[in-house]
Amino acid sequence: MSMFDTPLFQLAFKVIASIVFIGLMCGLVKSAIDSWKRKGTLLSILDEVIMGFIGIIVFGIVIALPPSTIINGISEPLKIIYNAIVNFIRETTGLPLPVV
Q1: Confidence (pLDDT) at 51
Q2: Which residue among 17, 22, 45, 95 has its CA within the 20 to 30 Å range from the CA of 5?
């Protein structure tokens, strides 16, 4: 059994994702209020509303999928970027850096 499949990790993952989501939504509401105060029109907060809907959709997807899928999905692009940087440094400087 993987550590990502344990009930405690799944709970911790959902709690952390919820805290991040609430923090981002609070920042979005604050930005919408500031936009409203600056311009005073409904069109000035339209971008915050659209970003809020996108955030809700992404949050729903993240919560619905198992944590191992999310972590693997994030780690693969990071490995590609890391390997590209390491290869660039290795070719330019000649340092023997490890590739993941």
Answers
A1: 93
A2: 22
Return the exposure string of 14-33: e unless at least 16 CB atoms fall within 10 Å of the residue's CB, then b.
Answer: eeeeeeebeeeeeebeeebe
- How far apart are the C-alpha atoms of 71 and 75, rounded to whole Å? 6
Q: pLDDT per residue over 27-59, tens digit each?
A: 999 999 999 999 888 888 898 999 999 999 999
State the Cα–Cα distance between residues 94 and 100, nearest whole angstrom. 18
Say how far apart CA 60 and CA 46 lie, in whole Å.
21
Tell me which amino acid residue 2 is. Answer: S
Q: How far is CA 31 from the centre of its chain?
A: 19
- What are the structure tokens assigned to 36, written together? 């409203």
Structure tokens at 70: 């999310």
Give the relative orientation of helices 67-93 and 7-39 as an angle to the nearest 10 degrees.
80
pLDDT in tens, 9-29: 999 999 999 999 999 999 999
* 3-class SS of residue 20: helix
